[in-house]
Amino acid sequence: MDTGAIDLRRSPRARRLSLRLDMAARRIVLTAPDHASTAEIGAFLARHRRWVERTRAALPPSVPLAAGCVIPFRGRGHLIRHDPSWPRQPEATSDVIRVGGPRHHVGPRLHRWLRETARTALLAAVHDCAARLSVDIGAVRLRDTKSRWGSCTAQGNLNFSWRLVLAPPEVLRYVAAHEVAHRREMNHSPRFWRLVAELVGDYRTPRAWLRRNGPGLHAVLVPTQDGG
Description:
By secondary structure, the chain is of the alpha/beta class. The protein has a four-stranded mixed sheet with strand order 5-6-8-7, with helices on one face. The protein starts with 5 loop residues before the first strand and ends in a 7-residue tail after the last strand. The longest helix is centred in the middle third of the chain and has 28 residues. The mean pLDDT is 93. The chain has two domains: 53 residues, no CATH class; 116 residues, 2-Layer Sandwich (Zincin-like). It is globular, with a radius of gyration of 20 Å.
């Protein structure tokens, strides 16, 4: 089997060999205990060859933030359409995102706009959920996280992936509710899930949507450098 696209990570805390998909890096990660031999790792990969092949085949193709590409936005495919004569501020319709200005600035400008749009939507959802649960919220930060769509610290600071703006609004709302509910229950107990249900109703559907479609959100490639 070609193991070139598999990242081997040794960990003193690992008790066994394991495989997982790093959605953001679009690579398979093999975690091994420090004592695992090369032969053991090779045999483990051979036993899980079909899983590796299926996982690789299921990865959606990467899509750059560039004119002519179609990216998900609020759960629907949107064509990025560029015209230098249009306003530089991106504008979204039902299936098109229009952006003007220099062509080489399209990607950076769209990236900033998507982050700003995500922040506005998440702040609104967070504050609404916090008011309904009568809890205080600290700072709300956006990141490009690899394995979590959101997190809540003991101090009440919330972190979210900006890529949630690419998902349907009800999915973004679910993640916001999930993290706000942690201000009352820092666990995933039945009481915690009752709070989430109180805020969004059916939470299982958006949670399942993220599990199925998360790789597609991470397949959107952001520019390595910002532009004007």
